[in-house]
Design goal:
2,3-Dihydroxybiphenyl 1,2-Dioxygenase, domain 1; 4-stranded mixed sheet; 8 strands
Length: 140
């Protein structure tokens, strides 16, 4: 069996129709940092310290909503949260900022992991997951 030639994700590039609003979703709502801008392209690079997203401005809004059975391309991007509490807090924060929610935090499969999906301002589906693998067992 061959060993993978890659060693992880360096960055993900997303084409967005609302460059400033999409960048603000990550920086203002999620606490990410703006790494740099390229006004000539234009693009904004944001990072949570583990992954970087390159947000590239497009001049066109999507002509139709994403349909996993008809569209080729990005289905969604998923980010991990360190606690179930942070997932619930994020959900409330997104609601208070009128972010479109596809579904509220719910069990992932049979649980105990939980996840939710929302749409960032340009319409890209963003999933947030608490994988439950960091759970501490209570002493017996």
């Amino acid at each position: 069996m061959n060993a993978p030639i890659t060693s992880g994700t360096h960055h993900i590039g997303l084409s967005v129709s609302q460059l400033e609003q999409s960048a603000a979703f990550f920086t203002d709502l999620l606490g990410w940092k703006e790494v740099r801008r390229n006004d000539a392209y234009p693009a904004i690079f944001v990072s949570d310290g583990h992954i970087m997203l390159t947000l590239w401005a497009t001049r066109q809004n999507p002509s139709q909503a994403f349909d996993k059975d008809k569209n080729v391309g990005l289905h969604h991007v998923a980010f991990e949260l360190e606690s179930e509490h942070k997932l619930d807090q994020l959900y409330q924060k997104l609601l208070s900022h009128a972010i479109k929610i596809e579904f509220a935090p719910e069990p992932l499969g049979q649980g105990p992991a939980r996840h939710m999906i929302c749409y960032e301002p340009s319409g890209i589906r963003i999933e947030f997951i608490w994988p439950a693998n960091q759970m501490q067992t209570a002493p017996a």
